[in-house]
Amino acid sequence: MKPQQIIDLARRLSHNQRQTIILYVATFGGMLLGVLSSIVNTSFLPPAEYGNVRYVQNILVGVTVVLLFGIYWSGCRLLALSTDAERSRQLRGAMTAFLGFCSLVLLLFTLFCAQFVAKTDAERHLFLVSTVVCAQPLLLNYMNIVLQGDNHIGRLAIVRALPAVLYVPIAYLVYRHWGATADRVVLLQWGLATVVMLGVIASTDLTFRNLRPIWSEIVAENKIYGWQLYYGSLVMVATNYIPGVTLSWFHTDNAVVGYYTLAMTITSPLYTLPAIVGTTYFKQFASERRIPRKVFTFTSALTIASCIVFILLIRPVVAYLYPERYSVVGVYASWLAIGLSAQGFGDMINRYLGSHGQGVMIRNASYASGLVKVIGYTAGVFLWGVWGALATSVLSVIVYLLALLLYYRRFVR
């Protein structure tokens, strides 16, 4: 295709379609680089030490979900409905202030984990090191939620791709010349991401004027909308991090934690790709009576095709790219592919219902899925180890998707 033909095609695309392509390319590229990051990490770290890194990160990321109280989602919805630029700046400022408060709380929690949660000296030391960059998961939540409400898809694309673009070459050079340790992996990977996201926040033209009335408005919206999503996220999202903890409890070291979480990392593009559609169309969804047929069809086809291709290719790809001691990751990823593909499609429906303030529906679907996860990731892992975790990841997402489809049909009728 000639350059002029590409330009003409781009002009014929709608604004949302162009944004979808930009975010798709950035996210997919970022995910591939994320996989490359895991290759770098696993090439220099033994499984047990890599498992320590993922164990500590799992705990901090899981607690992040508890701290947010639905505030980001409430602010996101107000931004999606806002037609006043100054009011949008004030909303961003209020949520940034809340981000700062949560970061302080997470810092104190990380110190608490170092003292009372860590099982070994290595884990204790890693928690202490993580205090420097523990705000990273809070910042990432802010980016993924708030930027879609303001339709800042270009900034979100930067956040999805740039940290991994920076990390891969820098990490390879550092680890090759000075060696890799769990400390260096945490500080370098989360540190670079933190710097990038702070820069993106600084570029969003926020203001802290009228902080009190704006905050009151967000709290009022949160009572109606955000709290419902928060309750659901506690049992849907936070429970995703349970196997990273229970697998550690029921095994002699954290190697299996590393295998499982690495499989999640490799499989994550399957979740992200269909969810991108919901993220890009979030603002438009708020004025649509139903999800456009073309959007629904395209997302379904993308999800199914991506899942099939992934399952066919993942085992030989893992065998080629990763050290032999990580070969079991390909088997785990094949199972996780089914669950994460279905979850990505479900989250597209989630975004539509969320844009219409249907927090109760989303909450109830999350409750149903979360209940399966809590049982499976505790009793299932205790009885069957990592296979209990894999079966739970598939079954829980099927429950989540079916519930959302039923609620969607009820809402549009």
Keywords:
413 residues; globular; mainly alpha; 17 helices; 0% strand
Provide a short characterization of the protein structure.
By secondary structure, this protein is mostly helical. The chain has 17 helices and no strands.
Written description of the protein model:
The protein has 413 residues and is mostly helical. 85% of the residues lie in helices and 0% in strands. It has 17 helices and no strands. Helix 5 (85-116) runs antiparallel to helix 7. The longest helix is centred in the N-terminal third of the chain and has 32 residues, at 85-116. The radius of gyration is 21 Å and the shape is globular.
List the helices and strands and how they pair.
Elements: H1 3-12, H2 15-44, H3 47-68, H4 71-81, H5 85-116, H6 121-130, H7 136-149, H8 153-178, H9 182-202, H10 211-236, H11 242-249, H12 255-280, H13 282-285, H14 293-321, H15 328-355, H16 359-384, H17 386-412
Helix pairs in contact: 2-8, 2-12, 3-5, 3-9, 3-11, 3-12, 4-5, 4-7, 4-10, 5-6, 5-7, 5-10, 6-9, 7-8, 7-9, 8-9, 10-16, 11-12, 11-16, 12-14, 12-15, 14-15, 15-17, 16-17
